[in-house]
Each structure stands twice: as C-alpha cells, then as structure tokens.
Amino acid sequence: EEENQQLRAQLQALRLQNTRNRLLQDKAEQTLQQWQQRYELSLYEQDQAFVELQGLLQQKAHSQDLLRNMRQWTTLDNIFKISTQGAFATINGMRLGAEAVITETFENHSNNVAS
After folding, report:
1. How many angstroms separate the CA atoms of 110 and 104, rounded?
2. How confident is the model at residue 55 (pLDDT cuts 50, 70, 90)?
3. How far apart are CA 75 and CA 72, in angstroms?
4. Measured distance CA(26)–CA(47) in Å, rounded
C-alpha cells in the first residue's frame, strides 16, 4: 500500500512536471514565432530599402548625366553675339547707345586750351 502511495505521488509529480514542460514549450514556441515574424519583417524592410536605394542611385545617375549635358550648353553664346563696332558695343549686331562717348582727361583738355 505504501508503495502504491509513493507511485501515485511520483505519478502526480510527473504529471505536474509534464504540465510545466508543456507550458514552457508553448512559451518557447510563441517566442520563436515572434522572432520569426520579426525576422520576416526585417527582411521585408531590407528589401524595401534596397529597392528605394536602387531608385535613388538611378535618379542620381540620371541627374549626373543631365548635369554633365547641361554643363556643355553654351546658351548665352547661342542666343547673344556680343561684340563691338568701333566705339559701340553690339548685341546681335544691334548697336548699344546713340553716340560714341569719347572721354578725355582733364589734363588733356587743359593742354589743348593752353596751346
């Protein structure tokens, strides 16, 4: 009889331990599932960041090509031909100003008057 009681006590302890083990296993499975979800989310975010990076790199390359082409433009030279005709400045052959202004220094003027 005493042996039966000991066996029953051991059986009850084993059942309790089995219940604890199942609870721990459930908790471990939940934790593993949470980590798997986090991992999958991080992979998705990494893929999205990579796609965004590729797009930005393509935009950068396009912008650099455009800038390189724009630097070769000589817009003002194509639109305006700036030069001179005698004492007059011209833009596209059109003379600027109505009269040529000849400036003399005061010293030159004084010499001419004294002579």
Report:
1. 10
2. very high
3. 9
4. 31
